[in-house]
Write a structure and sequence with these properties.
The structure is a single chain. This protein has about 425 residues and is an all-alpha fold. It has a single domain, classed as Growth Hormone, Chain: A (Up-down Bundle). The chain is about 80% helix and about 0% strand. α3 packs parallel to α8 and α5 runs antiparallel to α6.
Length: about 425
């Protein structure tokens, strides 16, 4: 065993910790809200529009720090930024549990989102430094599985806490989420490293022709990020994912309980089921994108998402809900994984966090708009049907946008787009 551990490339340690970072920054900080939402709505007296606004506050915070966090990680190293971001997200969740009304809850959810953006974007970009091009899609796919672990964790846990603690149960949930995330911040600080050269290694799977990441002190060519036509196109395609999937995830549990006849426990079980099916989706699609190209993989995933969201709207019965959850689970976090890998392909490992942060600006705009629009539509129609139908249509637009992607004219691009 000792001999095996001595031969283990430290990239696997970074990947394992990175997956836990995603678990805290997204699995708990963002998707925990989905399961806590019905009880939190009752506790704070919110309607669907206000619940959407609260989700939007979190996503605006995420948007604010995602771009800055990626740039800071490129300049000062991902480790420090990731640690600070996770700590901020943990504190935001703790204070969310103390919220007395919509305004204070929105402030703390925004703070949580800022921490999520400052930790999630750099940790995904970190994969480009530790894994060579031919392993990059796989690594990104493993890392995004942290979101799946979050679904599996909160799905059965939250209903039990709500049942045990009654009206204060949703507050206890946020205290637990925040405490776990703070512990993960400590783990990230102790175990993450900015690049393999810090400990005398090369990226995992590197070959002699692979570019070596440049030292952090060397000047960065920021213009390569913001002038790249491929990066801008990726950002526009990313808007569709942010807008569509967040509608589905935010109101998933609420729709099952309010219109599908599900209990909190039954909705939590289906949420957990979706998590189990999504556990390997990033690995599968990230690896597939290494083989067939990022463009083809993106088109396929967007089409699956459109089918999933459409089913949730058109087949409001247990078989339809279950099939929808499985379809989404099988492809859930694959788009962020493919986007992270593509940024590394186009701009190399040093600028990958900045590029990912930049396209996350577009993604974040979609996320910020989605819940508010969907919540208002649901209140106006007294049903979530039009909101989920809108999500499916936007996912189809994402597939069309991916179809128009063209390869970048750069020597760093080794995996096919």
């Amino acid at each position: 065993m000792i001999s095996f551990l001595s031969r283990l490339h430290y990239g696997w340690v970074v990947l394992a910790v990175g997956t836990l970072v995603v678990f805290g920054s997204l699995g708990l900080a963002r998707f925990g809200y989905t399961v806590v939402l019905p009880a939190m709505q009752v506790g704070l007296g919110m309607n669907n529009t206000q619940a959407g606004v609260l989700a939007t506050a979190n996503l605006v915070g995420y948007l604010t720090l995602s771009v800055i966090g990626g740039a800071l990680a490129a300049r000062y190293g991902p480790r420090a930024v990731i640690t600070a971001g996770l700590a901020l997200a943990g504190v935001g969740m703790l204070f969310t549990g103390l919220a007395k009304g919509l305004l204070t809850a929105a402030v703390w959810r925004a703070l949580t989102g800022m921490g999520s953006g400052a930790s999630n974007v750099p940790v995904m970009g970190l994969m480009a430094a530790w894994f060579a091009t031919r392993r990059r899609g796989l690594a990104s796919g493993v890392a995004v599985a942290g979101s799946s672990v979050g679904l599996i964790f909160v799905g059965p846990l939250v209903p039990r806490i709500l049942s045990a603690y009654g009206e204060s149960g949703w507050r206890i949930c946020w205290f637990i989420f925040g405490g776990v995330t703070l512990l993960l911040a400590v783990g990230g600080f102790l175990l993450l490293r900015n690049q393999p050269s810090e400990i005398g290694l090369k990226p995992l799977g590197a070959e002699t022709e692979d570019p070596v990441p440049r030292p952090l002190a060397e000047a960065l060519q920021w213009g390569r990020v913001y002038r790249s036509a491929v990066v801008w196109h990726l950002g526009l395609v990313y808007v569709a994912f942010g807008f569509s999937y967040i509608i589905y995830m935010t109101f998933f549990t609420k729709h099952l309980i309010a219109e599908g006849g599900y209990t909190e426990e039954a909705a939590g079980r289906l949420f957990m089921t979706m998590g189990w099916f999504s556990l390997l989706c990033g690995v599968i699609w990230g690896t597939l994108s290494d083989v067939i190209g990022r463009k083809r993989a993106l088109i396929m995933v967007y089409l699956i998402h459109a089918g999933s969201f459409g089913l949730f709207a058109w087949w409001p019965a247990p078989p339809g809900f279950t099939l929808s959850a499985i379809l989404f689970g099988l492809s859930a976090w694959s788009i962020p994984a493919i986007m992270a890998a593509t940024c590394g392909d186009v701009l190399g490992p040093r600028l990958a966090p900045a590029a990912l942060g930049f396209i996350t600006l577009f993604f974040g705009i979609g996320q910020a708009l989605g819940p508010s629009v969907a919540g208002a539509m649901a209140d106006a129609a007294h049903s979530f049907f039009p909101a989920f139908l809108l999500a499916g249509g936007v996912a189809l637009l994402g597939a069309f946008g991916a179809l128009l992607l063209r390869p970048a004219s750069t020597r760093d691009l080794k995996a096919p787009i």
